[in-house]
Write a structure and sequence with these properties.
Helix 1 packs across helix 2. This protein has 61 residues and is mostly helical. 48% of the residues lie in helices and 0% in strands. It has a domain of 34 residues.
Length: 61
């Protein structure tokens, strides 16, 4: 029997979706994700953070 995958939070990189936004059923309808993705400055900051995490993980092994 296959395990149900746990969705990852697109904002808190590397962490599971904890349904922290009231009424959300996952990242697909999370208001916080929508706000970050709809703001160009926040979206750029998130992209920078993702690059930082990926490079840190690559250095670690």
């Amino acid at each position: 029997m296959a395990a149900t995958p746990t969705p990852k939070c697109p904002i808190r990189i590397g962490e599971p979706c904890t349904l922290c936004f009231p009424g959300a059923s996952g990242p697909q309808d999370c208001g916080l994700v929508y706000l970050v993705q709809s703001d160009p400055e926040w979206r750029d900051q998130l992209a920078d953070k993702r690059r930082e995490v990926r490079s840190r993980e690559a250095l670690a092994g």
